[in-house]
Amino acid sequence: MATSHPSSSPQPTALTVHQASRVLEIHFDDGREFRIPFELMRVYSPSAEVQGHGPGQEVLQTGKREVLIDAIEAVGHYAVQPHFSDGHDSGIFTWDYLYHLGADQAELWSRYEQRLKEAGMERDLPMPAKTGGSCGHH
């Protein structure tokens, strides 16, 4: 089913943080709605801490199945900045990026599982302790 996209991207009409089920529910004005697991958001956080500073620099995230969103702040009219329970709060999630996480969830999960496999790591392994030049926590 092909839908013509208006020049502007879909805008959210509702956003709900579900702590018990650990999902962010988001409804867009094109009629689509997604339930994006916090873990998926955390693993695919658009921050430099996760994405690195270029292709191949991504830091594989593990042990995030139980992560919660303690707070979520609006960033202008285009994004939100979640504060995750593991202290991560530098990711700015634009509406486009959240739409992508919601719409492409299945593919993103399988890519994540593939990357874990290639790295010989498990999804629930704790992250290694950070050393030196990491982003400071408050």
Short description:
This protein has helices at residues 38-43, 48-51, 95-103, 105-119, and strands spanning 12-18, 23-28, 33-37, 69-75, 79-84, 93-94.
Descriptive keywords:
6 strands, disordered N terminus, NE0471 N-terminal domain-like, 3-stranded antiparallel beta sheet, disordered C terminus, 138 residues, alpha+beta, globular
Describe how the helices and strands are arranged:
Elements lengths: L11 E7 L4 E6 L4 E5 H6 L4 H4 L17 E7 L3 E6 L8 E2 H9 L1 H15 L19
Antiparallel strand pairs: 1-2, 2-3, 4-5, 5-6
Task: Walk me through what this model shows.
The chain is of the alpha+beta class and 138 residues long. Helices cover 25% and strands 24% of the residues. The strands form two sheets. The chain has a three-stranded antiparallel β-sheet with strand order 1-2-3. Strands 4-5-6 form a three-stranded antiparallel β-sheet. A hairpin with an 8-residue loop joins strand 5 (79-84) and strand 6. It starts with 11 loop residues before the first strand and ends in a 19-residue tail after the last helix. The relative contact order is 0.18.
